[in-house]
Batch of 3 targets.
Target 1
Amino acid sequence: MKNLFEGKFGRYLLPAIIIQSVLIGGGFATGREIVQYGAKFGALGWLGGIGILFGFIVMAVLMFEFARKYKAFEYRKLLKELIGPFWFLFDIVYLLLAILIIAIMASATGEILNSTLGLNYWVGVSLITVIVGILNFYGKGLIERFKTFGTLALMIGYLVFAALVIGTTWDDAMAVLSSGDTSYMPGEVSIFAVLWTGILYVGYNLAVFPAALFTIERQKSRKESVISGIIAGVLMTFPWFLTYFSLMGFYPSEEVFGASVPWLVMLQDFPAIVIVIFGIVVGWTLVETSSGMIHAFVDRMEAQMEEHANKSLTSTQRGAIAVGTLILAMILSQVGIIDLISTGYTAMAYAMIAVFAIPLLTIGVYKIFFKKDEEIAVEEADSSNG
C-alpha cells in the first residue's frame, strides 16, 4: 500500500482523487448545484460544462506546478507566494466557504437520511461529525486512504444513479437538446450568461483545491504537475455532465428544478433500495468534503504554530478544530439549501476568484514560467535567515 501511494499513483492520480473527493459535497452531491450553475439553461447548459472543464484543468495545472516549484504544500505558504501580505484574505474567504459548503451538505444529508433511512436529522449529522473528527484526529495517512477508496465507491454510486436516470429518460433529454429548449429561464438566454455561470461554478469550487496540496510533495517534475492537473480537471467535470444529462430528462419540471435535492426527486420512481443507497452515498460525501476542507485548514494552522511557537497541534486539537467547524456549519445549515447555494455560493465565487484565481493566473503564471530556480532558492534562503 505504501508503494502504491509513493509511486506513480501518488504523483499522478492521488491529487486528482483528493480534489474530486472534496468537490463532491459542494459540487454535485445534491444536484441542486448543477441546476443553479448550468442545467437551468436547458439545451445551452452543456456550454457551461465545457467552460468548467477547461477552467478546472487550467487552475489545477497551475496550482500543482506552483506548489511543486515553490514547495508550498499548505495553502498559507502558497498564498504568501501569490499575494504576499494579503494572504490572510484567502484565509477568511476559505474558512467562510468551507463552513458554507459543509452547511449545505449537512442540510442535504439531514434531509436525505431522514427521508431515506428514517434517521432523525441530528442523529445523522452527529454521526458524521464524529467520523470527521476521528479522521482529522489521525491525520494525513488515514485521510489519504479513506478518500482513495471512498471516492472510488462514490463515483461508482453516482455512475449507477446517472445510468438509471439517463437510461429511462434519454429520449426526453435528447428532445430538450435537439429543440434548443431553455424555457426554465425567463427571456432569451445568452451564451455569455451560460459561460459566466460556469466561471462562477469553478470560482466557488476553488476552495477545494488547497485540500490536495499535501499530496503535491510527491511530484518532482512539471510533466507530473501537468498530467495530474489534466486528470483532476476531467475527474472533477465528469460528474457535472452526468448530473446535467440526468436533469435534462426532466427539463423544465419545477418539481425537479425547484427541489432542494433534485437527485431525490429524480430517483423517487426507482426501488426503495436505490434511495437508501443514495442516502448513504450523500452522507459519505459530507464526510469526504468536510474532512478534506478542514484538513487543509488544520494544516495551515499547524504551519503557523510551528513557525511562531515551534510546536505542532496535538491529535486532540486537530479533532477538536474539525468538530468545532462542523458545529458552526450545522447552525448555518438551518438557512436552507436553495438560498445557501444561489446566494452564498455566488458571493463566495466572486471572492475566491479575486483572492485566488486572478493572482494564480497573473503572479502565479509569471513566477512559474519566468522565475528561475536559482532566484527561488535565494529568496527561500533569505526568508529562512530573516
Target 2
Amino acid sequence: MRAAVLHEIGQDKLEVVDDVEATGFGPGKVKIRVRATGLCHSDVSAMTGVLPQPAPFIPGHEGAGEIIDVGDGVTGLQQGDRVLMSWLPACGVCPACKRGQTQLCLAGFMNAGTPNFKRPGGDVFGFAGTGTFAEEVVVDAGCAVPIPDDVPFEIAALIGCGVTTGLGAAINTAKVETGASVAVIGCGGVGISTIQGARIRGAAQIVAVDPVASRREAALRFGATEAVSPDELADAKQRITGGEGFDYVFEVVGKSATARTAYETTRRGGTLCVVGAGAMDDFLQLNMFELFFDEKRILPSMYGGGDVLRSYERAIALWRAGRIDLESLITHRVQLAEINEALTQMRTGEALRTCIEI
C-alpha cells in the first residue's frame, strides 16, 4: 500500500512509496482504511526532532476512515464502521484515568515506540502510534472512535486532534469567563479553534496574534474581535486593557519566546494557557519574585485538557448546531502524492488546515 515516509529525523520532505504494509493486527486491534487526514504542526515538529519520535516513521495522527477488520476480543466495533482516530486513547485503569484525567493516560505514548508498519528494508513507526499518512493503519481498538454518518471524514479528522485541542484549551483548561478579554498567540488550525472556544464561552474581546496576514484575516472570520501582528500586540494590550494585560492569553506556538510574551501580556491574577507543543530543551524562564507577586495562573493544556471522548461529542454537537465552523478550517485539499505541497502550505502559513484525501 501507499504511504508517506520520513526516513531520517531532520529531512524536510516525505517520500511517497507503495511498498508499505500495516502490521500488528491481532487481538484487541483494528485495521482502518484511512479516508482523510489533516496535517497538524505536530507532524512537522516530529519531522524536525522537536517532538521525540523514532524513525523511519509515517507522520499523521489526525485521521478518519472505515474499519476493514476487527481483531479478537474487540467489542463495540465492526467492519464498515466509520471512525476517527484518537492518538491518545485512554486505558481506563491507570491512576490518571481513574481520576478522570484521561488526557494524561500514557497508554497512547507506549504505542509510539512500537512499529506498526514495515517495508522490505525493515520496520517503520507510525507517528504517535498511528501514522495516518497511509492508506491503511493498524491501531488499538481504543484509538478507533465511531462517528455519526452525517459527519464527513475530513471534519472527523480535524476533531481527532486540532479542533479538540483548541476548543478544549478555552473550555476545559482555562474555562474562559463570560465578558473576559482574551489574546491568542498563534492562529493556525489549533489557534483558530481556541478562538472559537473563547467565543463560545462568551469572551468580550478576542485578539488574534499572528505574523501571517492571511491567518489574521481568517481569525476575524472565526470570531476574533481584532487581529494584530506580534509587533502590534503591546499596543493592543495598552488600548484594550489599559496596559493591565488580558484576562486570558493562549500560547499556541510551542516556543519559550512566545510563552514569555504571553506571560507578559497576561494581567496580574490572569491566566496563561500553554497549548503549543514545544521542545524538551526549550526552557521558559520566570523569576521567583514575579511568580509570587503577579499570581498569574500558568495552565498547560494537553489535548484539550479533558476527557477526549466527551470532547469529540461536544465538538460534533457544536458543529451540528452551527456554533463552530469546521468546514472553513480546511483551506487546502491535496492527494497523498502531493503531501510535500501540503508541508509547504503549512510552513509558509498559507494553510489553516490542509486535508489529505487518501
Target 3
Amino acid sequence: MRGRLVEPAAESRPVARAVLRPARLPRWALVALLVGALSFGTGVGLVVGLTSRVQWGLIAGVVFVTATFWLTYRIEGRRRAVDRLAALLVWACFAVAVLPLAALVWETVSRGVPGVSWYFLTHSMNGVLSWQSGGGVYHALLGTVQQVLLASALAIPIGLMTAVYLVEYGPGRLSRAITFFVDVMTGIPSIVAGLFVLSLWIMTLGFGYSGFAGAMALAVLMLPIVVRSTEEMLKLVPDELREASLALGVPKWRTIVKVVLPTALGGITTGVMLALARIAGETAPLILLVFGNAMINGNPFEGAQSSLPLYVYEQWGAGTESSYDRAWAAALVLIAFVMVLNLAARAVARWKAPRTDR
C-alpha cells in the first residue's frame, strides 16, 4: 500500500550485516605468524648449518612478511594486504636502523663497564706503558671538556649572529654568498678542517700544538650546524610577534634580542647541543693539532693535550690486552658524555617550549 514501510525479509538481514562487517584476521594471527616464522627460520638455520643469528632472523623476516601478506590478501582483500605490507616494510626498515645501534651500545657497555672505575676517571696515563694494567682517562676527559667549551665559545656567537643576519635583515648578495659558503662548510670533511688550522695556525703563524688549535678545528666543524639550526628556528617565529614589537616603537635590534631570540631559544639550544655532540667524537683533526699527551695538561693554550677520541685511538693502536680494555672503557665514557649533552638539549627544549595549555 502507498505510504506503508515494507519490512525487509528476515533472511536478508544477516546478509546486510555481513556486508557491513567484512572479514578480519583475529588478533592472535600476527603473533602466531611471527612465532611460526621465527621457528621456521631457526629450524632452517640449524638444518642448513647457518652460524649467524642474523641470517636466521632474515629468513624468519621474509617468511613472516610473505605469510602475512598472503593470509591478509586471502581473508581481508587486496587493499588491506597492501596496507599491512607497507606497514611491515616500515617496521623492518626501523629494525634495520636500530639493530646496529643497539648492537654497538651493547658491545661498548659490555666491554667498557668492567674498566670504568673511580681510579680510571681520576688518573692519567703518566708512567703507564701500553702493556701494563692501570692508568686512567682523566687527562683525556679534561682535554675533551676544555676543547669542546673553547669550540663553543668560538662557534656559537658567530653562528647565532650569522643566522640572525640571514633571517632578520633580508635577502641580498651577501646573504646568498653566506648561505652558499655555509652549505659548503657543512660537507667539509673533518680532516680538511684540521689541515686548514694546521697550515694557518701552526705552520704559518708558528704556534705550537695545543688544545686551542684543536678547538679551532672543532669550531669550524660546529659553525655550519649552529648557523643552519638557528636559521630554521628563527624562521619559525611568527612575523606577528615582530610586527607587534615594531608597532610599539621598539628598535629592531631590541625586538630581536627581547622577542625573537627568546621565542626560538628552545630550538636554538637543541641545535647547539647537537652540534656539541657532533664535535665531541671527532678524532682526525685532533691527531694533527692536539698531538696527544699522557700527562695532565690543564692549559689548553700551551703544550700538547689529549682527548677522549684520541685516547681511544691511541690505546687501540697499542695492540695489547690492557690497552684494549682502556679503549673500550674510554669509548663508554665518550658515549656517556655525548648522551649527557643530548639529554641536556632535550631538557632545555622541553623547558623552553611554548606552553599549549592556555
